[in-house]
Each structure stands twice: as C-alpha cells, then as structure tokens.
Amino acid sequence: MFRPKHYWRKRLHATQPHLREASVCDANGTIQQLSFKPQPSLTWLARWLAFLTTPFKRLGISGWQETGCVAQTRGRPVRPAQHSTDGFWTIDVDLLSFRIGAAHAPSGRFLRVEVEPGTAAHGICEKEAVGPPTLLSIGGPVVIDTDGPFLEVHPDEDFHIEGH
After folding, report:
1. Which of 7, 35, 65, 93 could form a disulfide with 75 if both were Cys (CB 3.0 to 4.6 A apart)?
2. Which of 60, 84, 43, 49 is nearest to 145 (CA)?
3. Is the pTM above the cut of 0.85?
C-alpha cells in the first residue's frame, strides 16, 4: 500500500517557500467558510482510490489551497474516523469552538480534519478509537479542500483527546 513519508505542507513549504509568504490569513473571511453541515462520509471507493488521488491533491490538482490561518478547535466527531489507502484519517467534527487568533466562529458549524501519516496526530488516531463520543482539541493550519470547496484543519502536534 502507498504511504506518504512526509507531511505535505512541510514539504511544500520547503520546496516552494514563496507559498508560505503569499498566504495572508483573513480570519473572519476564513471563519465564514465553515460548513453549516458535516461533509458526507467518504465512500468506500473514495477511501480505496485515495492512494491514486492524493498525489494529485499534493500537486494542486483538485487539491488543497492555503489560507495562511491557524485555528484552535474543540469538537466531537460526527461519525467514526475513516482511514483511507493513502494513510490519511478523515474526521468530520461538530465544532464546540473554533478560533483563529481573536476571531471566533458562531455555533452550529462543522469542519473536516485530515490527519496525515508521519504526524503526531496520526499516531494518536492509530492507537485510539476516534468517534462521536470523543471530545477532541485540535490546532493546525486551515486549508481549503477545493473538491468542495470546504475548510479542513491539518494537525500535526496539536491533536488531543480530552480526558486522556
């Protein structure tokens, strides 16, 4: 099975540092893009084909667009975390709180969290069952998944199951 050996954002910024400087965070504009309902569950076909589609996303083809923002969130998954053949864990979260700097999101919003292999967050997902009763505290860069478009947070070190 194909398993990426690097965090895509770190590699992107190492090879194309101009992208980091080009992304200036518009906290309020980004918060306005939060979803009013959770994204649909990944189909078995999408989970299975992920090892083929993710490399294209990394290249910007139906991929991720930087917002320049970093968010702190708390919430509960709407369904069990889904694991795909690219190694990613996908978690759709019903947000209790969402903050970018001093800007806060109103209640009733949802967010997709994508957890990439090789991150501390991935190690937690491998060891713990992440599902609806789980209370998560997550921080990380906010990106736009252009498939939707919808917002995602891609955590690395800042991923915690509260109560553990």
Report:
1. 93
2. 60
3. no
